């Protein structure tokens, strides 16, 4: 007798094509498979291959970590095996697989990193690039690398999986046939706002989502609701407001009160717990309406069954290269028309549905038709480092499906030069080779190396880098009372130099508590995030040892004494000196140093979460930051105070063009000008062990 899961599998649109798909994969080396979201590409096709292709060792890539983990769990369950046995996963810092594993879900970044030591990816003989339509940066690079690998490995099978029909690009690039799995789409009614444009919507969309959900709940027939929002914070806020309003709701006034009596709200964002609630995928009990609040992940990588209504806020949080700071920033931007169509489609999978677009028709017409591929809007620093490591010297002429902006390649190379990872001829240096072996950004790997070679604080730096590699570990309590309590508790860890040393104090206090879960709860930190950091820390320590980078510890004290700050900050500067900013006197704005030198007037602000907001603002002068997040203005996240002396020598080492400066940079000029005169002297200060320089 067939069980329920078997029935579910056989009811998927892809099932009737099982034999044809296997035959096509046998016949062609590269195959493009297109099918609507939910048709069974991710969970079924890899299983068909295991059944139909002898000795297949399969890798399936996903642009998102939680999609990789969640798919692996689902397929393990469907095959009746334990995770890590037949089916496993591998994401940065975490691998669950064994010698029995024949199917691995990986993030595209993890597979790309594998390529740096094994460019032909010889450990797999079948590679499936899933969610190809998303055109994530790492997937795009893998396209080119796999095309190369196919020429050298005739037995290798490559399958490009995509959710949209816009596949001519893939077809042309790979010169491969397309196998299309017909979907079943029902009609979706589109409801527009009359006048609302994106500008107004940007500050109000969370509240409008709340109102729309309540409107649907009160007036529409039974059926679940999927709301597209931009991120965790917006989702949490929306969930809270919906639940508050729901408590006050008088069901006597609800139009469908006999059939809809209650609601449940599920958030889905980048944390795994949100996807591991089984109930999300189960049929909603009669009389209950399920409200799913999701990020873009629900657009194509996760399918929630039973959705009849979609609320589309019109925005997405997207990585965008910032030409002024030369870094990626996260921005909330309007989605593309293609994305809007995908979102709407989620309402018509099982019956006719409706999409509530929170913007007007004219706004839709102003959207760009498709989303710009990530490779054309991201910092390419890490990508270039990997390509150089693989041996691709001429990055600009690499076989890209869409070429990156040459200027971004140039900037990436320049930044790698600033970090000492490449020489003036853009050749990878010894230092660059070591940097590329660390599974963190080149900025962070530079800090790690420097902390061992130059400043003898590598133990501390491994902790800081680990904490910078996990999601936010501060719990933001909902009630004001708890907020005040959290603030008070955290006071104890605060270091006046800023966030980096504060992070270290937090970690050390947690360590001394015996890595206690209760301690995390009492002090309002996410236990899971700190635990991940602990694991990352030990992996970083072993990576350091592998490269014979000594581990030094400055202190065993729980709280870092002021005398130990300098080496830590100096190590941080080796990686982040390009992110040096100077505060304008009397104001709360900061000027990026390099951008100012280049004559650009760009302003940055302290993030409200930064511990530097707690000190007398007049005492702030030079600061380095980790990254920029753009909410309503560009905020520097994770910041520390430094002395200009710490970065002066680093700036002196590289050839930063000293452009003419505008009048408004007077304050900065005062500091910079003396440097011009000392330039020659500064060069001589370079310590030979800091950066490998061309002779
Ligand atoms: P595609 O990759 O083509 O979008 P999937 O293989 O991801 O399709 O999904 C096929 C079906 O399996 C969908 O109906 C989806 O709801 C279901 N499914 C996927 N993951 C899970 C899960 N973790 N739990 C329950 N059902 C799931
Ligand atoms: Mg999928």
From TrEMBL:
EC number annotated for this UniProt entry: 3.6.4.13
PROSITE patterns hit by this protein: HELICASE_ATP_BIND_1 (PS51192), HELICASE_CTER (PS51194)
SUPFAM superfamilies reported for this sequence: P-loop containing nucleoside triphosphate hydrolases
Residues annotated as domain Helicase ATP-binding: 22-183
Keyword match Transcription: no
UniProt GO molecular function: ATP binding; hydrolase activity; RNA binding; RNA helicase activity
Stretches assigned to the Helicase C-terminal domain: 211-396
GO BP field: spliceosomal complex disassembly
Keywords for the protein's UniProt record, in alphabetical order: ATP-binding, Helicase, Hydrolase, mRNA processing, Nucleotide-binding
A Pfam family this chain is assigned to: DEAD
Top-rank taxon, per record: Eukaryota
Reactions performed catalytically: ATP + H2O = ADP + phosphate + H(+)
GO cellular component, one term: catalytic step 2 spliceosome
Name recorded for this polypeptide: RNA helicase
Organism expressing this protein natively: Boothiomyces macroporosus
